[in-house]
Design goal:
This protein is α+β, with helices and mostly antiparallel strands and about 100 residues long. It is about 15% helix and about 30% strand. It has a five-stranded antiparallel sheet, with helices on one face.
């Protein structure tokens, strides 16, 4: 699954693989111009501190906090909660039929 979310006034893109509570998470900080910024990942299956009962949203928020701290990113709205968002970017896929 690929999804975007807002958290603390910032925008992130998450790629999630695996089963609930044991996912592999890849998180990218999205820049103003829809370019990808710094990234971070977490393999919940191998993380000894993983709580498989922690919600995906709480885990992504924790990972976003870690990324912002590591990259010295200041939150524009520090009190803003986690919220899934419609992606600002999309991919156009052709029908697979090519004209000769």
């Amino acid at each position: 699954m690929v999804g975007e979310f807002g958290y603390r006034g910032e925008r992130f893109r998450a790629t999630i693989h695996g089963r609930p509570g044991k996912e592999e998470l890849f998180l990218i900080y999205m820049l103003e111009d829809d370019e990808e910024g710094p990234e971070i990942s977490l393999d919940r299956f191998e993380d000894p501190d993983n709580d498989p009962n922690q919600s995906l949203e709480d885990c992504l928020a924790m990972l976003a906090d870690r990324l912002m701290k590591e990259q010295a990113i200041s939150a524009t709205k520090p009190d803003a909660e986690f919220a899934w968002a419609q992606p600002k970017t999309s991919v156009n896929v052709h029908s697979g039929v090519q004209a000769h």
